[in-house]
């Protein structure tokens, strides 16, 4: 499933109409009918439905929705919130069709009148403003939006909540707070941004007939889905042995933080790594081993339980490595990160490793093996030297710029995890829930990534599948065993088992 900007969506519409030759009125008919079918799944026969229509394609979709609901026997009132002269083209065609089918359109943009009508509605269908909205709304529409948000009606937005920007980077806006949004075509960027996604409520997408030549390879962004996981996750051969599934190395741990690396090791083995070695201080090995008996251990030199770089790590003996969990930010550990960067082979850098790699960024694009950085927003902001709010306004743009500049893979962790390749292609993982907002969840993810990157799949597939498994494990655990309150990071590895058993058995 693509993730698009407003401009990319407009371009696809334009190409379908002007190059492929599909009538724009037909596309609008398809969109409106598909959205009305979803609306009918949310309403009862006795509900009073109010549809608020604006100008442009969004209003046109609204008139098709109104006609379809009217024909199917629903009690619907249509209020046009813009003057008649602003309804033109395909939207005017469908407005007139609605009227000729027995519908009535009340034209008013007076908030006092609309407020009274909204109070009587059980369902409000918002079809006022589309994906081209930018900046703050002006009166009277701003007052209408406020009236909707103050009402007790169930609000369903067509394509996008009115007033909400479709793209990232918006600072000031006012938008309808929808309970549901039915998106036409593909989800827009703002459905995956921390500041804007809550306005959508629960969202779904509907197809409206854009042909494959128009949609294929149009956007460099997509959602990583269950279908992608099932299609790309490698199968295990009957004659496989432990050497077929990778020998991984995890570097980190300290006297203060031995648990983080233990969770990473367990997660890597649960995910399917064949062999796992933990490189850490001798004093913490018993603690880690008590939680992960299946791993082997490599003793690194330390000073009072904190790792230093006096030990040469044999990176060439391993298929991939991850460094950073529990490493600490003291200067003595920086040399270990430098050793890892100078070695070859796949490298994942997480947690404290990201702090140390900041001074080594210009060396990353000289490595032959892929580098994967796994920051949360605070760590990504540190690497970019921007504030966290700046990053979260434009996470797609910032991570794309960074990944292309340093030729690395970036996993920006969050409610929606954005995976970016060195070429700038981006994948979003929507798996997971608020139960993952606990210390140690990222350490578990790093272990999953390490195991995945050693399997027979591309790096992009490995990262998409790692984030998917991590998130799905949390979803299953909070549905069947835990709640989002009591779920802790070490629980997640147990959930990996169910993800594999339930999803891979059905492909």
From TrEMBL:
Show where the YjeF N-terminal domain sits.
9-216
Keyword entries, A-Z: ATP-binding, Isomerase, Lyase, Metal-binding, Multifunctional enzyme, NAD, NADP, Nucleotide-binding, Potassium
Enumerate the CDD domains for this protein. YXKO-related (cd01171)
Could you tell me which residue ranges the YjeF C-terminal domain spans?
225-503
The cofactors required by this protein are: K(+); Mg(2+)
The record, for Pfam families, names: Carb_kinase, YjeF_N
Q: Does the keyword Transmembrane apply?
A: no
Q: Which reaction does it catalyse?
A: (6R)-NADHX = (6S)-NADHX; (6S)-NADPHX + ADP = AMP + phosphate + NADPH + H(+); (6R)-NADPHX = (6S)-NADPHX; (6S)-NADHX + ADP = AMP + phosphate + NADH + H(+)
- Enzyme Commission (EC) number: 4.2.1.136, 5.1.99.6
Question: Which residues are noted in the entry as AMP-binding?
Answer: 413-417, 442
Binding residue positions for (6S)-NADPHX: 57-61, 130-136, 159, 326, 376, 443
**What detail does the entry give on cofactor binding?**
Binds 1 potassium ion per subunit.
Keyword set includes ATP-binding = yes
Q: Which residues bind K(+)?
A: 58, 126, 162
Tell me the Gene Ontology biological-process terms attached to this UniProt entry. Answer: metabolite repair; nicotinamide nucleotide metabolic process
Q: What is this protein called?
A: Bifunctional NAD(P)H-hydrate repair enzyme
């Amino acid at each position: 499933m693509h993730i698009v900007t407003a401009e990319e969506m407009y371009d696809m519409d334009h190409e379908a109409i002007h190059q492929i030759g599909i009538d724009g009125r037909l596309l609008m008919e398809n969109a409106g009918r598909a959205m009305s079918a979803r609306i009918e799944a949310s309403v009862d026969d006795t509900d009073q439905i109010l549809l608020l229509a604006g100008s442009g394609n969004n209003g046109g979709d609204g008139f098709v929705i109104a006609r379809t609901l009217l024909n199917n026997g629903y009690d619907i009132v249509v209020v046009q919130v813009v003057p008649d002269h602003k309804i033109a083209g395909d939207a005017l065609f469908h407005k007139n069709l609605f009227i000729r089918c027995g519908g009535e359109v009340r034209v008013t943009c007076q908030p006092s009148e609309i407020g009274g009508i909204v109070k009587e509605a059980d369902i409000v269908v918002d079809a006022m403003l589309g994906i081209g909205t930018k900046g703050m709304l002006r009166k009277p529409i701003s007052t209408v939006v406020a009236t909707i948000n103050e009402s007790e009606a169930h609000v369903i937005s067509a394509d996008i909540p009115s007033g909400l920007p479709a793209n990232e980077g918006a600072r000031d806006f006012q938008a309808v707070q929808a309970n549901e949004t039915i998106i036409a075509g593909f989800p827009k960027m703002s459905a995956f941004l921390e500041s804007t996604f809550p306005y959508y409520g629960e969202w779904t997408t509907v197809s409206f007939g854009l042909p494959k030549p128009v949609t294929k390879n149009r956007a460099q962004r997509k959602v990583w889905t269950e279908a992608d996981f099932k299609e790309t996750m490698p199968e295990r051969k009957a004659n496989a042995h432990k050497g077929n599934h990778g020998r991984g190395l995890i570097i980190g741990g300290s006297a203060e933080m031995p648990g983080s690396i233990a969770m990473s090791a367990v997660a890597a083995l649960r995910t399917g790594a064949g062999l796992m070695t933990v490189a850490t201080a001798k004093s913490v090995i018993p603690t880690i081993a008590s939680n992960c008996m299946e791993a082997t251990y490599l003793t690194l030199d330390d000073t009072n339980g904190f790792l230093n770089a006096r030990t040469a790590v044999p990176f060439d003996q391993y298929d991939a490595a991850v460094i950073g969990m529990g490493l600490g930010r003291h200067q003595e550990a920086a040399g270990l990160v430098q050793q890892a960067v100078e070695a070859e082979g796949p490298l994942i850098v997480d947690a404290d490793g990201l702090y140390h790699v900041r001074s080594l960024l210009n060396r990353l694009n000289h490595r032959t093996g892929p580098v994967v950085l796994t920051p949360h927003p605070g760590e990504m902001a540190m690497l970019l030297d921007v504030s966290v709010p700046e990053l979260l306004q434009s996470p797609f743009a910032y991570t794309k710029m960074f990944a292309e500049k340093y030729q690395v893979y970036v996993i920006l962790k969050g409610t929606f995890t954005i995976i970016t390749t060195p070429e700038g292609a981006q994948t979003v993982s929507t798996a997971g829930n608020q139960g993952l907002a606990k210390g140690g969840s990222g350490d578990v993810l790093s272990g999953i990534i390490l195991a995945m990157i050693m399997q027979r799949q591309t790096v992009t597939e490995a990262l998409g599948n790692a984030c998917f498994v991590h998130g799905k494990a949390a979803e299953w655990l909070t549905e069947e065993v835990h709640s989002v309150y009591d779920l802790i990071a070490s629980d997640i590895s147990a959930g990996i088992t169910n993800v594999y058993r339930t999803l891979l058995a059905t492909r």
